[in-house]
Design goal:
This protein has 241 residues and is an alpha+beta fold. Helix content is 21%, strand content 24%. The protein has a 6-stranded mixed β-sheet. Strands 1-14-6 form a 3-stranded antiparallel β-sheet, with no helix packed on it. A 3-stranded antiparallel β-sheet has the order 10-12-11.
Length: 241
């Protein structure tokens, strides 16, 4: 689909991944046009049509999660859509892992032998709480064999947070201080891409790709909850052929 993002990373040939954008759907108003979330107030018929258009590009229906900003990881092949979790993995071909975002960071993982793939939803709460650590552990692969790709999230010039967010990261990894730039009024600009890369590197995952997007500033391309409040969601998906 024109306008969607195909991750540029050296994943094995049988690994497929894509990220949707606002383009290519039928939703209107603040959800225009390819909103894939059924929980944000969009018309059910529009969401169904948007999901149908996405499904046409996939080997199976995505296993949609009820994301709660936690760290639970599930086996996508063993659960029904709608289960509460913030990451899913697949070990067999054709099972599509998916996470939805509109500022939070989507993290896609695969191993060099393509024996497993994973999609994780890493907003600041999940990232601070350890969703990346949980996802890497669930894959049961040596970290040096893993590749990570960081998808569209709110960028480091736009993500203003308070002391509590910074402290949540520093409590687990003091080096996280480098990912925060002070602002007036006791606020900080936080770099989700740097924070995620630090966590991955600390686990031994050194091959990290992607990043460089800003959902907040790229209004024509991406949904942003912080920018709009009422808005749609993009999907980041990964599977094996």
């Amino acid at each position: 689909m024109t306008g969607w993002i195909i991750p540029d990373w050296p994943a094995p040939a049988n690994v497929r991944a894509l990220v949707t954008t606002r383009a290519g759907g039928v939703s209107r108003g603040p959800y225009a046009s390819l909103n894939l979330a059924s929980h944000v107030g969009d018309a059910a018929a529009a969401v169904a049509e948007n999901r149908r258009r996405l499904r046409a590009q996939l080997p199976d229906e995505p296993r949609w999660l009820a994301q709660v900003h936690g760290i639970r990881v599930v086996d996508a092949a063993a659960v029904a859509s709608g289960i509460e979790a913030d990451a899913s993995l697949a070990r067999r071909a054709g099972t599509v892992c998916a996470v939805m975002t509109a500022d939070c960071l989507p993290v896609l993982l695969c191993d060099a032998e393509a024996g497993a793939v994973c999609a994780a939803h890493a907003g600041w709460r999940g990232l601070a709480g350890g969703v990346i650590e949980a996802a890497v552990a669930a894959m049961r692969c040596p970290p040096e064999t893993l590749l990570a790709w960081l998808g569209p999230a709110i960028g480091p010039q736009a993500f203003e947070v308070g002391d509590e967010v910074r402290e949540a990261f520093l409590a687990r990894l003091p080096a996280a201080a480098a990912a925060f730039v002070p602002r007036e009024g006791g606020k900080w600009l936080a770099d989700l891409y740097r924070l995620a890369t630090q966590r991955l590197n600390a686990l031994g995952v050194s091959r990290v790709f992607g990043g460089g997007f800003c959902t907040y500033r790229e209004a024509e391309r991406f949904y942003s909850f912080r920018r709009e409040g009422i808005t749609g969601r993009m999907a980041s998906l990964i599977w094996m052929e």
